[in-house]
Amino acid sequence: xxxxxxxxxxxxGPEVLTIVENELRPPAAGEVRxxxxxxxxxxxxxxxxxxxxxxxARPPYVPGYSIVGDIDAVGAGVTGVAxxxxxxxxxxxxxxxxxxxxxxxxxxxxxxxxxxxxxxxLILNYLTAYQVxxxxxxxxxxxxxxxxxxxxxxxxxFLQLGRVAGLQMYGLASxxxxxxxxxxxxxxxxxxxxxxxxxxxxxxxxxxxxxFNGMGEEYCEPGLAVLRRGGVLVHYGGxxxxxxxxxxxVKFIFYNLLPNGKRIKGYGTHRGEIEPFREDWSTLxxxxxxxxxxxxxxxxxxxxxxxxxxxxxERGSVAGNVILAAxxxx
Length: 330
What we know:
Elements (H helix, E strand, L loop, with lengths): L1 E7 L8 E7 L7 E11 L1 H8 L15 E9 L11 E5 L8 E5 L4 E2 L6 H21 L7 E5 L4 H12 L3 E6 L4 H6 L2 E5 L5 H8 L4 E6 L6 H6 L1 E9 L6 H16 L5 E4 L7 H16 L7 E6 L3 H10 L5 E5 L5
Parallel strand pairs: 8-9, 8-11, 9-10, 11-12, 12-13, 14-15
Antiparallel strand pairs: 1-2, 3-4, 3-6, 3-15, 4-5, 5-7
């Protein structure tokens, strides 16, 4: 028996995504085989495919940073999970497929009451926002913050979780996406036509408590400019090249040595341990069940129509998330 996956055949645009067939083997010892129900298309998928990251997978490879699915087979020695269980995993690669093999110790149980297309958005985008807010920044109700890139998958997660946390928020987004920013509790600023430093200095002359930047390092200097003394900028976006990575590290060191009381912190899920992830995923699942957060799904595509989904995301016209879903979950 075979299954299909979507492979990046070489560096390039969505056209390099091709469908291949693979043998469906039994899981190895300690593994589970998961039938994938949903996986998001994320910016890192695009960046690695195009080659705009410092540390890259070599083609051919299967993209897909996170998944939700049902276990359909377990390997020898696996305990704690069984066929039929619904689980999630932060995979980094492998999600654009009908099945994935994964370490049984690295999966997270998912309530079957949740829509897999919504639940899978929590595994990366909402986890990033939640951990930046509550582990890196340790925000408090009433804090004033700026979200750079506020209309994207991670940006809207910041807004919804920030609203739950009682934050006063500003969000950078293009004018066409300002309604999304407002509806999720923030004051929008058009980064294309407005100088956000001037706008925020007029609105908040004492400065902001935090800036959350998932875009380029060019937002570091203006982001620091709108902070109060003692404020923190948290950068969580991947650099565009190894040279940009080195530049970002230099900026971290330089700005943290300046005697202005402002700091830069970095965050990345690749540095995390699984147990804090489990704790935060559980919190996020509860928030979704209670209706306190609601991932914005801009579009769903069949699981193997990854090229079309990637093309839509790259056009930059959507607010929220683009999802690949198995039959029955579209």
